[in-house]
Recover the amino acids of this structure.
C-alpha cells in the first residue's frame, strides 16, 4: 500500500515566512509586500509619492531627535563629504590616466602634473584626499553614535545592517583610491593588502588573483582598482545609500529606540 504524503501548502508556508523576524525587519508592516494594493493609476501614484516624499517631509519626529548633540549631524556630514568627493574626483579624472606600463607610468606622471601644472589641481587633490579621510572618520563616528544611542534596535535592525555595508564600502573606496598615485607607498600598501586577502578561507587564491589581475602587482592591478574606485564601489554605495535614507524615515526617523 502506497502512503500518501501531505501536499505542501504554499500559502501557509508563505505566511510563516512573513511572520519571521527577518522578514519583518526587511519589509515593514504596511508595505505592499504585506497588504497589497489596488493596481490603479491613482494607487500607483500614491505609492510613489508616499515612498519618496515621506523621507523629504516626515509627518512627525520626536523632540530629542532634533537636538544637535543627539546626532551631531554625522550622517549628513558623511553624505556631504561623499558628494564633495564625487565632484572633486570627477575633476581629477580629466587629468588622470590609469596606465602603469613599464617605462611609461602615466599614472604617476599625471599625478605630478595635477599637483604642479593643472589649475587648482593640487588644491582639488588635497580636498579629495583629506575629504576621504574625513569621510571614513565621520562614518565610523556615525556608526558609534547609532550604537551608543540604541538606534540600531528593532524596528531598525535592517537599516543597521545596511549601515554596516556602507561602512565597508567607504573603507573599500578609501583603500582603492590609495593605489591610484602609483608611488612606492601606494604599491607597497596594495602589496600588503592583497597579501592579507590571500588568507581568506576557501577562495584565497581566486580573491588575490581578482584583486591583482595576475600573480603580482602590475599594470592590471592599477586598472582594476581604478574601475573599482570610480565605477563599481560608488555605484553600489549609491544604491545602499538610497535604501538607507528611505529606511530612516520608514522606520521612524532619528528618534532612537521605540
Amino acid at each position: 500500500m502506497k502512503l500518501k504524503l501531505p501536499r505542501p501548502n504554499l500559502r501557509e508556508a508563505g505566511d510563516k515566512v512573513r511572520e519571521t523576524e527577518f522578514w519583518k525587519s526587511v519589509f515593514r508592516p504596511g508595505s505592499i509586500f504585506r497588504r497589497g494594493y489596488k493596481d490603479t493609476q491613482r494607487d500607483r501614484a500614491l505609492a510613489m509619492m508616499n515612498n519618496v516624499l515621506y523621507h523629504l517631509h516626515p509627518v512627525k519626529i520626536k523632540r530629542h531627535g532634533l537636538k544637535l548633540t543627539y546626532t551631531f549631524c554625522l550622517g549628513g556630514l558623511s553624505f556631504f563629504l561623499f558628494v564633495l568627493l564625487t565632484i572633486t574626483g570627477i575633476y581629477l579624472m580629466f587629468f588622470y590616466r590609469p596606465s602603469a606600463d613599464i617605462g611609461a607610468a602615466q599614472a604617476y606622471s599625471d599625478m605630478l602634473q595635477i599637483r604642479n601644472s593643472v589649475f587648482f589641481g593640487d588644491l582639488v587633490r588635497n580636498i579629495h584626499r583629506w575629504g576621504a579621510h574625513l569621510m571614513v572618520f565621520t562614518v565610523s563616528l556615525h556608526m558609534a553614535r547609532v550604537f551608543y544611542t540604541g538606534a540600531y534596535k528593532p524596528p531598525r535592525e535592517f537599516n543597521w545592517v545596511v549601515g554596516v555595508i556602507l561602512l565597508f564600502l567607504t573603507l573599500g573606496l578609501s583603500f582603492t583610491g590609495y593605489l591610484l598615485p602609483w608611488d612606492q607607498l601606494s604599491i607597497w600598501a596594495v602589496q600588503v593588502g592583497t597579501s592579507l586577502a590571500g588568507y581568506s578561507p576557501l577562495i584565497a587564491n581566486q580573491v588575490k588573483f581578482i584583486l591583482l589581475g595576475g600573480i603580482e602587482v602590475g599594470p592590471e592591478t592599477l586598472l582594476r582598482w581604478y574601475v573599482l574606485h570610480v565605477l563599481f564601489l560608488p555605484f553600489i554605495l549609491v544604491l545602499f545609500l538610497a535604501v538607507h535614507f528611505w529606511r530612516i524615515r520608514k522606520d521612524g526617523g532619528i528618534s532612537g529606540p521605540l
In short: The longest helix spans residues 219-250. The chain has twelve helices and no strands. The CA atoms of residues 108 and 181 lie 6 Å apart. The chain has one domain: 64-250.
